[in-house]
């Protein structure tokens, strides 16, 4: 009659796996918290049931027989798979959260803070997708749960949550300014290289952030078509260019606060101008608890950032 799996043979196979792995009944007994005689008896019962020896007993140790080698490979693999599966099932279920975020905000602001979210919510796995397209209300694509965008007030959906007001700063490296001493004059702006994020949000008027800042600061209009400039479609590219002493950028405080704090960039004229748009977060109409947890964390992180930013610039914002 063929040998079948039953509770008795499973127990003997457990002893066989340990003995075959360690090639010692004594070591197997220690690993299984049994006596050496109990392990030896289990192996004898298994060999008697199978009808062939599994070990060759030598004065100085054990060796597996050819059939013992074959059976041990299968037994070891089976117990390993079982242990791995049991360990996996003991872990809490992990919820997957798909976040769509503007590339520059993701890189400069969100990424340095995501570890804090993970510490608070180890059961939520964040999948971050960098993209710039407008998210239509309740029409999230590709399984997106949460979207973070930079939008002018008139474009913010009713269900959008504003994260904080944004401000614009003309910034450059100290090295660049040593070669181009600042002056609020039309000639200065025409003599330096302007680093331009030409479309800060989808369908934004070209150079809207430079235009906004200049309108607030300059007593006389400055034509952005005059002078040297680099055009980018991402703020992070303009920031990188500025850090490499390429020119002057208009940066949002959320994206360059750290560079300003460390002195890698300098607020050229010490001015903060209200931005024409705000960062907002949108979520699926039917959101699970993992989405709510992320949005609550994000709103709290933004509030903390806003407080730190006020201290950094030493003025109400």
Q: Can you offer a commentary on this structure?
A:
It is a single chain. This protein is α/β, with parallel strands linked by helices. The chain folds into three domains: 7-90, Winged helix-like DNA-binding domain superfamily/Winged helix DNA-binding domain (Arc Repressor Mutant, subunit A), CATH 1.10.10; 95-164 and 278-313, Periplasmic binding protein-like II (D-Maltodextrin-Binding Protein, domain 2, 3-Layer(aba) Sandwich), CATH 3.40.190; 167-274, D-Maltodextrin-Binding Protein, domain 2. The chain has helices at residues 7-22, 25-32, 36-50, 66-90, 103-120, 174-179, 186-191, 208-217, 235-243, 253-262, 289-313; strands spanning 55-58, 61-64, 95-101, 124-130, 146-151, 161-164, 167-172, 193-197, 228-232, 248-252, 266-267, 273-274, 278-283. Strands 7, 8, 9, 10, 11 and 12 form a six-stranded mixed beta sheet that branches. The radius of gyration is 33 Å and the shape is elongated. The N and C termini lie far apart (85 Å). The model has no long low-confidence stretch (mean pLDDT 89).
CA gyration radius, whole angstroms: 33 Å
Average of per-residue pLDDT values:
89
Largest sheet: 6 strands, mixed
Number of domains: 3
Oligomer: single chain
Count of beta strands: 13
Helix content: 40-55%
The amount of beta strand, in percent, is: 15-25%
Q: Strand pairing plus helix content: what structural class?
A: alpha/beta
* CATH homologous superfamily annotation of the largest domain: Periplasmic binding protein-like II
Taken in chain order, the helices and strands follow as: HHHEEHEHEEEEHHEHEHEHEEEH
Straight-line N-to-C gap = 85 Å
């Amino acid at each position: 009659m063929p040998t079948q799996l039953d509770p008795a043979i499973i127990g003997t196979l457990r002893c066989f796996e340990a003995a075959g792995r360690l090639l010692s009944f004594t070591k197997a007994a220690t690993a299984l918290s049994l006596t050496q005689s109990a392990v030896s008896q289990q192996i004898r019962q298994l060999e008697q049931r199978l009808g062939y020896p599994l070990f060759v007993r030598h004065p100085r140790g054990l060796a597996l027989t050819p059939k013992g080698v074959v059976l041990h490979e299968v037994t070891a693999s089976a117990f390993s798979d079982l242990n791995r599966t049991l360990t996996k099932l003991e872990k809490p279920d992990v919820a997957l959260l798909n976040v769509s975020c503007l590339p520059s905000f993701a890189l400069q602001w969100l990424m340095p803070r995501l570890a804090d979210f993970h510490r608070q919510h180890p059961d939520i796995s964040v999948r971050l997708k960098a993209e710039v397209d407008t998210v239509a209300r309740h029409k999230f694509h590709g399984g997106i749960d949460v979207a973070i965008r930079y939008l002018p007030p008139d474009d913010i959906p009713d269900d959008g949550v504003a994260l904080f007001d944004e401000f614009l700063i003309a910034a450059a490296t100290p090295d660049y300014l040593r070669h181009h001493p600042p002056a609020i004059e039309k000639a200065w702006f025409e003599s330096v290289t302007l680093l331009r994020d030409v479309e800060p949000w989808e369908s934004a008027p070209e150079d809207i952030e430079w235009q906004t800042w200049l309108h607030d600061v300059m007593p006389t209009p400055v034509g952005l078509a005059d002078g040297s400039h680099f055009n980018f479609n991402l703020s992070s590219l303009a920031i990188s260019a500025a850090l490499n002493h390429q020119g002057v950028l208009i940066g949002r405080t959320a994206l360059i606060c750290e560079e300003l704090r460390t002195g890698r960039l300098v607020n050229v004229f010490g001015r903060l101008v209200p931005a024409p748009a705000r960062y907002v977060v949108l979520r699926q109409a039917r959101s699970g608890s993992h989405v709510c947890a992320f949005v609550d964390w994000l709103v709290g992180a933004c509030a903390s950032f806003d407080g730190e930013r006020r201290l950094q610039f030493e003025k109400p914002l």
